[in-house]
Amino acid sequence: MISVDEAVARIATATKPLEAVSVAIDESRGLVLAESVSSDRDVPAFDKSMVDGYAVTDSDLAAEASSGGTVELYVLEEVTAGATPTQTLTPGATTRIMTGAPLPPGTGAVVMIERSTAAGELVVLDVTGVVPGDNVMLRGSLQRAGAEALAAGARLGSAQIGLLAELGHAVVRTVPRPRVAVLATGNELVPAGEVPGDGQIRNSNGPMLTAAVDECGGAAIDLGIARDERDDLRQRIEHGLEADVLLLSGGVSAGVLDLVPEVLAELGVREVFHKVQLKPGKPLWFGVHGFAGHDFGTRSGGTLVFGLPGNPVSSFVCFLLFVRPAIARLAGRADTRHTRARLVDAFPRRRDRPTYHPAVLDESSTTSTVRLARWRGSADLAAFAEANCLAVLPVGDEVIAADTVIDVVRS
Ligand code: AMP
Ligand code: MG
User: Fold this and answer.
1) Which CATH number fits domain 338-410: 3.30.470.30, 3.90.700.10, 2.40.340.10, 1.10.486.10?
2) Is the distance from the beta carbon of residue 182 to the nearest atom of ligand 1 less than 6 Å?
3) Which residue has the least CA distance to atom 11 on ligand 1?
């Protein structure tokens, strides 16, 4: 049986970022930019005023000392944002100017409107302490035309999208959201909205996995519930193989109706590994379909196929450890959910497999701490609903002492 690290490495080998596509920026949130983006113009594109006030020449500012801190100037015109000045500023004159409006040639500084007193066609300005350049934003001072504003690989959040809009990029090349099909398998399953009959249970993995896919930036496609019958499985799996990733839950253990690996093999899905040394989650199955090269070197529309254990907790742990990093990689990102924290209470190790235990990570103080949640074994999904991470408890014979720093995976 391979280790968790080996399994993660084999999945990573099979996973390359998806081919870039063009998208409108209002659909780009969370995506990774696949091209370098530069400005089509200087920002700002003209010298502009940063306040409502009066544009003055440097020589009128210099004359202030001899006039007791005030100057009396003739008002040439008024320029509002979006308008253009028609007159050049000369000593003795001023232009009344609004925030964001282009400055007339000859401007040295802008004096705030609060420092003005109107006197007919004249205005008296208190220019005490005003120096050349005050309240003026020079052309190109924020961004030069042609200079890179965002590099390829940048994650697009609201600030980046605002910048793209400012620089005239309404459509950009991005790595698309991976399409992830989710198929629950099992004769015992009914949809969440139904009352289970004898021996039946509700399908919790389907809604949990589609939510988890959306949460980590994938586009989930819900394929519903397949019966433990070859034909039904085959038909739904074939559909799922059109996606970038197919997540199956259930049917990968050693039970008589665990048909998933067989059906996948019949459909040409090549097994990369089956079973991983961890608890919970040991039955995990992983394979690939439709890849061009045997070394997975060139990804041409292939599908990564995960057979997750049916047990909801095992399914969830396998998603966090193996599927989430794969979705991130397909989307051109790194999965950065791992950290380390100080264990609050001592815990006995297990001898056979490393355990991924539901826990609460507290990062509010300088050293993060992790407290194990009360957990009643593999079927206890409620324990995970209270937790915000997995605490990684390595194998060994002795007790892990309180205050030991351990690995943690945020959920
Ligand atoms: P399996 O791997 O198919 O043998 O399933 C292992 C356990 O997980 C069984 O108790 C199943 O009833 C349960 N299980 C399988 N699929 C789901 C599901 N979609 N939602 C909730 N429990 C499930
Ligand atoms: Mg089953």
Assistant:
1) 2.40.340.10
2) no
3) 310
Cα(25)–Cα(363) distance, rounded to whole angstroms? 33
Instruction: Write out the H or E segment, with its range, that includes residue 150.
Output: strand 148-150
**315 within ligand 1 shell (Cβ under 6 A):** no
Q: Is the C-beta atom of 186 inside 6 A of ligand 1?
A: yes
Rounded to whole angstroms, the Cα distance separating 342 from 98 reads 56
Cα-based angle 170, 156, 13 (whole degrees, multiple of 5): 120
Instruction: Compute the average pLDDT of residues 95-106.
Output: 98
Are 176 and 301 within 8 A, CB to CB?
no
Atom of ligand 1 nearest to the CA of 283: 2
Ranges of each domain in the chain: 4-19+177-330, 21-43+141-175, 48-137, 338-410
Looking at domain 4-19+177-330, its CATH superfamily turns out to be: MoaB/Mog-like domain (3.40.980.10)
pLDDT at 296 over 80: no
Q: Is the pTM of this model over 0.85?
A: yes
Of 189, 260, 262, which is best to mutate to test ligand 1, by the most ligand atoms within 8 angstroms of its C-beta? 189
- DSSP letter at 312? H
- Which atom of ligand 1 approaches the CA of 314 most closely? 8
Residue 307 bridge partners (DSSP): 248, 285
pLDDT confidence tier of residue 293, bands split at 50, 70 and 90 = low
Q: Give the torsion sign (CA, 11, 250, 245, 208).
A: negative
Q: Which residue puts its alpha carbon closest to atom 16 of ligand 1?
A: 310
Q: Which two tokens stand for residue 10?
A: 């084999």
Closest ligand to Cα 311 = 1
The dihedral built from the CA positions of residue 243, 249, 253 and 257, taken in this order, carries a sign that is: negative
Is residue 115 classed as helix, strand or coil in its secondary structure?
Answer: helix
